[in-house]
Amino acid sequence: MMSDYIQKMMRSDLVILNSTLLYATSHVDCARKCLSLLCYCYSFDSQQKICEIGKCSIDHVNVVPKKDIYIPCEFDKGFQFVTIGGARECLSVSTKKYDYIRARDDCRSKSSNLYTIHNLSKLTWLQRTFGNTYFWVGLNDIDVENTFRWEDDNSVISDFLKSSTFAPGEPNNGRDGNCMIYYNYYQLLYDNTCNSNFSYVCEKLLFNFQ
Fold first, then answer.
1. Residue 13: pLDDT band by 50, 70, 90 thresholds?
2. What is the pTM of this model?
């Protein structure tokens, strides 16, 4: 089975049945696809960007994954399930406004990340839910100028998403912009100084990679 990353819940005597091949930007994206389809395991080829999802079995008997594979959404901490593009996401909308680093750290303290946009459905959700407002997005080029990486898996944003989600002329590094916001005027992404205070959404990945 092709893979340079296999979910650790898989045992050596498991085999894949009814596998499906999908495109994925990262192993986190592949995990999300697996979760949305209620699959039992997956593998991800980072070179080809191919996600293989399917059912795991021993002697053709389906195996239920260990309970600790899935991370609880923690409703008591302000998170809630939201369906975006057919996938179930666990989100918490902050009532406070922080700078990028403090907002990122607040999300991390809750075992989550700043909201990421790995597909256009997640941008559409922001547009429909919040419309004309500002929100931090978990994307920045703090380490390397003009190399924007997502907070959840450290992957570089694809050229397709750049052209589909960035506002006209962005990123332009205006005002030393190294951190990305959802910009109310265009309802697209715009680079901004990391020191500004904006609202933000925390996003909890429901797969346990440990």
1. very low
2. 0.69
